[in-house]
Amino acid sequence: MERTQQIFAQYHRFDDGALVSFEQAYGPRGVQSVRIVLYARNHELEGNIWRKVAITVGDVRELMIKTPGNFINRICCGVKLLRFGDVWCVDVDGTYAHDDPATLEEVRRDGDCYVIGGTVEAIELD
Looking at the record's lineage, which domain of life comes first (predicted)? Predict the structure, then answer.
């Protein structure tokens, strides 16, 4: 988990990056995991280094995706890694009254693209 939090910090929550893909893996009880691939700049490295990063949410309990199609989906408000009790929430580009939503209810009410699950892992792909 520490590495995942470090990646979120190094990439400044993927601000100004792009959503590359949103993949769902299904099991007998519905969506089992979600893999979000982003293209963004690593601010910890010298120069203008952009990479793909995969964020995988396992043990998915809830999923909402409202994104327009047929264009590059830029990240303007960041990708938020949030902890609420025993679940993780990855919110893509949600706009809230404050920088981070205070509750899951706020995410459900105002979020357009989020995944709630039991595990989360981020890895650099290149």
Answer: Bacteria
Structural domain of 47: 2-124
For 76, other C-beta atoms within 10 Å of its C-beta total 10
- What letters, b where the CB count within 10 A reaches 16 and e where it falls short, cover 60-74? beebeeeeeeeeebe
- Regarding pTM above 0.85, the answer is yes
Residue matched to tokens 């989906």: 73
Please give the tally of structural domains in the chain: 1
Is the pLDDT assigned to residue 91 strictly greater than 90? yes
Cα separation, 79 vs 9, in Å, equals: 11
